[in-house]
Specification:
- It is a single chain.
- This protein is mainly beta and about 290 residues long.
- It folds into two domains: about 120 residues, no CATH class; about 140 residues, no CATH class.
- It has one helix and 24 strands.
- It has a 24-stranded mixed β-sheet that branches.
- A hairpin with a 2-residue loop joins strand 21 and strand 22.
- The longest helix is centred in the N-terminal third of the chain and has 4 residues.
- The protein starts with a strand and ends in a 25-residue tail after the last strand.
- The C terminus is likely disordered.
């Protein structure tokens, strides 16, 4: 296909194989879905700046071309000056994907080989992703459903929610916002949740195998597990203990807010828990900025 400039709403079907997708938008909405069949692009709306689509050697790039010398953060207000875009992209589920949106929303679903989603101002929604999954936004919410593998989520100002997850490793951090985490996987062995100003609510199966450490500097800690009792000391509440074999670790801390540990239904799986080596932090994520 080579390179093509898109100036009007259009639909494209790509004959060549796609193994890597890179999307970079100044302003708008992008929805990427992993599905069978050839890669397809539907541009529902495009500003007068247009889009550039490039395909070569298995790599598919869809981006706004920004003039040299423009500071990236200044693109927040430039987003309303001809850059507004709404695009849906279908690629094979094995496509490694990177999405960047300066001002807008990003949705990713059905991708099994990992995804990186970075939004400056706007929301992120992820469904049915696997592999190494990373999501980061400065101002906006992150919602994740049905994630497996390793998941890292970071916000500066916004809520983080995770549901129906079988992820074995979960890292979530927000400066200002709540974290809600519902883990279905009793074999999750690393769960780290942190907020500066906000509450944390985490639910794990009653047959989980976790060493638990919950803390709130200015707030309260609540635990539904008798094995994880709550204590008070020096104005700080804490709950520590072990659920099951304790092969994994759950750590949740809030500077100002409530930390709650809830008990979910037991797993139906008879597989024994793994015995992973101790992990102290995310392998792919970093601190929120």
């Amino acid at each position: 296909m080579g390179t093509r400039h898109i100036a009007n709403p259009t639909r494209l079907t790509l004959d060549e194989e796609v193994s890597q997708l890179d999307v970079w938008l100044v302003h708008g909405k992008v929805h990427v879905v992993g599905t069978d069949g050839p890669a397809r692009i539907e541009v529902r709306r495009v500003g007068h700046k247009g889009l550039t689509v490039t395909q070569a050697n298995g790599n598919l790039s869809i981006r706004h071309d920004v003039p040299n010398g423009i500071w990236p953060l200044s693109l927040w207000w430039l987003g309303r000056r001809g850059w507004s875009t709404d695009v849906i992209i279908a690629v094979p589920p094995t496509t490694a994907t990177s999405l960047t949106v300066i001002n807008g929303d990003a949705v990713a679903s059905g991708l099994r080989q990992g995804a990186t989603v970075d939004v400056t101002s706007g929301s992120i929604a992820m469904m049915g992703l696997g592999g190494q999954v990373r999501a980061k936004t400065v101002s906006g919410a992150i919602e994740a459903v049905g994630i497996s593998g390793e998941l890292t989520m970071q916000t500066v100002s916004g809520e983080i929610s995770l549901a129906g997850s079988s992820a074995e490793q979960v890292y979530a951090r927000t400066i200002s916002g709540a974290i809600t985490c519902d883990l279905d996987n009793p074999r999750a062995f690393v769960v780290h949740l942190d907020t500066v100003s906000g509450s944390i609510t985490v639910r794990v199966p009653e047959d989980a195998n976790l060493r638990v450490d919950l803390a709130a500097a200015s707030g309260s800690v609540r635990s539904a597990f008798a094995q994880v009792p709550t204590t008070n000391g020096m104005g700080r509440q804490r709950a520590t203990g072990q659920i099951g074999a304790g092969t994994g670790r759950l750590r949740a801390s809030a500077v100002s807010g409530t930390v709650s540990l809830l008990a979910g239904p037991a797993s139906e799986s008879d597989e024994p828990p793994p015995h992973p080596e101790e992990t102290t932090g995310p392998t792919t994520g970093g601190d929120a900025t």
